[in-house]
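Researcher: Structure prediction, please.
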Amino acid sequence: MAQEDLNFLLTNRIPRQLLTRFMGWFSQIQQPLIRDLSIGAWKKFSDLDLSEAKKTEFSSLHDCFTRELKAGARTVEMSPDIMTCPSDGIVGACGRIEGVNLIQAKGFPYTLHDLLGDDALVNQYRDGQYVTVRLTATMYHRFHAPYDCTVRQVNYISGDTWNVNPIALKRVEKLFCKNERAVIQCAVDSPSGNTALITLVPVAAVLVASIRLHFLNVLLHLKYRGANVMSCNANIRKGEEMGWFQHGSTIIIFAPAGFAPCENIQTGALIRMGQPLMKLPS
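Model: Predicted structure follows.
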């Protein structure tokens, strides 16, 4: 408990937004000595594995954070009845949405209204399915389309930058609903011929408050002051890259009633981009 208390204090009872902005600046310094020392320290004190990286040399710490993978490093399950995981990560809470209520961590519920802020969208996922995928700092940070889809709208919701690790999730009520996030609505044509709406919600965290989407010519971050709701018409193939985090965070995936979780989706399971996530309605 003392270790949890210390972790929580060191990662949350700090000037979170100031440090997040500083990290955004520091990580992009391309001075060779600073770059090499930063990446070297990161390797020494973590489980960072760059063997799958497309590049062997990086221009900055940020360049290393947002690295691409070698061709073939991930296999995308192409079965037409399977929706795949958009990113690498660890499965957090998952399962059926009880009405509009879902779980952040044991004993800590929140609602679709609190997270999405859109009544029409909330109704789409009433009694639906969700999976929370948490990325750690050393993981591959880019996320990909879980199915052939058309991105229709992105709603950027500014907010705080609480840590999203399990310790904070057990202590901060409605944490995901407090943090900066983007609500990405994707139309999916299922094998049955019906169109379903899948929504991805990348959630920012301390030191991690920038999201880049290939189909929007803006960087969503703490200083962003543009339009909150942005219409799109971007066609993306299953497994195609959609964007990336600056560092690492969380993606929550929502599907309507009728979808079912795949057998590998269990709390605490390690999952990679492209592996089965949910089964589409037959």
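Model: The chain has a mean pLDDT of 86.
Researcher: Thanks, that helps.
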